Amino acid sequence: SEYVIKNIQWTTGNNFTVERGLQQIEEVISAWEIHESWLHWSEFLQEEDLKDTKRYHYRVCWSMPTRRKPIPRSTANVYFVIEISKIKPATSPVEVFFTLESSKLIHRPDQCRFREKWLKDIIENKIILME
């Protein structure tokens, strides 16, 4: 079957709040095909005021605790940026991007199929480094 990316109706610049941004990020990750054993928590990190935009930075921290190891050996972070243009009309939707920890590749949630393997790879690489 063909995968369909869930289309999120992003809030507009004039309706944006840090809390609304967090809610919409949760909405995005709820559509990702990730096994239910993965747990996550999300947080707002900082606001960045640039010449033409304002950027709001968030982090979603993932882990896979088990009965044998309730405290996971490592975690994987996904960093989101919500960008509000100072040039476009305030009624324009915000732009949303995310990157994975240890990667510079920028993804757009509405154009990318998230892979659970990305989280596993980050955690496996950290464990190898620790050992």
TrEMBL record:
One of its GO terms (molecular function) is protein kinase A regulatory subunit binding. Pfam families: AKAP28. GO terms for cellular component: cAMP-dependent protein kinase complex. InterPro entries: AKAP, AKAP_28. It comes from the Eukaryota. This is AKA14 protein. It comes from Eubucco bourcierii.
